[in-house]
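Narrative of activities, Objective 1.

The group set out to show that a structural description can be obtained from nothing but a protein's sequence at a throughput compatible with the screening campaign. Below is one input-output pair from the validation batch, recorded exactly as produced.
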Amino acid sequence: MSETETKARAGTTVPEAASPAEEVKTALAGLLTDLGDFQDEMTTKFQQQEELTTLQFSQTSQSLGILA
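Output recorded for this entry:
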């Protein structure tokens, strides 16, 4: 696991040490946010792929004379 930062970077302060429960809560909130972002990204990619597949099917069908 990662080490907690003990030294402040220039111009920042080190926050008070969070309790283990707060760290877990923060980590889970971050994970849920990341999962939501991933789900949105995958939904967009699947929609784009479906549109491309539909277009290719339409073009192929027309060139083969299957659809009028």
